[in-house]
Write a structure and sequence with these properties.
Layout: E1 2-5, E2 18-20, H1 23-30, E3 36-38, H2 41-72, E4 76-80, E5 88-93, H3 95-104, E6 114-115, E7 120-122, E8 124-133, E9 136-145, H4 148-155, H5 163-167, H6 171-206
Amino acid sequence: MQVILLERIAKLGQIGDEVTVKDGFARNYLLPTGRALRANDANRARFEAERAEIEARNAERKSAAEKVAEGLNGKTFIVVRSAGETGQLYGSVSTRDIAEILTTEGFEVSRNQVDLKNPIKAIGLHEVEIVLHPEVETKVVLNVARSTDEAERQAAGEDLTSAEAIYGIDEDAQLQTFEESEDLFEEDASTAEDAAEEGNGEEEDAS
């Protein structure tokens, strides 16, 4: 389908460009959301008559998006979720969740503006891109943890999926103790073997 773009669309074109797109993309996204018009003589004339107004509205939306982006850029948001010992979430953090979190914090963001390829399914620090306008993008960090305390520790660089973080076990110390135990076991075994050999030697002498 041939359409006239009413705003810049990534990888397609700028305002006023006539481009060819798949029918489904046009019918399900571009046309119903007001991002494009069918390319015909009537709509070409309509676009040219309203071009100045369309460009002014776009500039206004871009300016508003830039202000939101300034407040969001690089900001970290703590997300508390239940998770297992390995850090896997009991559920996930979706685009809807992220939009609600940002909106609660005072930033007007819709789920369609959250560019998340796959839902977040593990604790950790996750960088997420927010597309506020076709020409305005920013990034935020989601600190997903089991509690606010763990989120603070995680932000400081601690790995919350390690045995030490979960149980308070020092894995290096535990490994060292295990190795020392193995050495002791080998020494005891060697001593027992030596004693057995000595005993056998005494029995042979007595006979």
